[in-house]
Fold this protein.
Amino acid sequence: MRKNKEFDYFKAFVDLSSYSIKAIDLLRETLQKFDRNHIEKKVAEMHHIEHSADLEKHELMNRLVKEFLPPIEREDIISISDKIDNVIDSIEDILLTIDIFNVETLKPEMFKFIDVITECCKSMNSALVEFENFKKSKELHPLIIEVNRLEEEGDALYINGVRSLYKNTKDPVELMVWTEVYRRLEKCCDACEDVANDIENVVMKNS
């Protein structure tokens, strides 16, 4: 059993990934009640979540510098932490893109993407909960597969969304803006899969 004074890296991963769920929940709420007049306030709220996650990550890194014998390889701890952070950054980037490009009307397809990203973040978080017991867990592998499946669903939404956009939209500015929005949405699913792949790599190396 770990001593209380020892830093729990696996719990730190879970705590860090919980910010992705806070971020996607805020994004969903913002889009469901979309109002350009409130966008700056929502961007500030999102940045607070992202900054709080950065502080958690810095604490994890500070502990790792002093750690004599971490539970898994240092490179893996750094990589997983970076990739969880990328998920949170990717969610923030969606809202920033909507703000920067002054999007005034949302496309219905966007909400399907938000549903997939939400499930991606939840499955990623659940996988990280199971990660500490990766040698015995029967739930971890199915959760990794689920993140992979959701990423493929995100790919399909991206392809179909962009294809529909270029078939039905003539305005070049709208094409540019929504191509970028769809790209940002798809990137979130990729970021979740990157975390799942890192977890799977650690399991393979330690099995």
User: Anything to note?
Assistant: The two ends are 20 Å apart (CA to CA). The chain has six helices and no strands. The domain at 9-200 is CATH 1.20.58.220 (Methane Monooxygenase Hydroxylase; Chain G, domain 1). The mean pLDDT is 95.
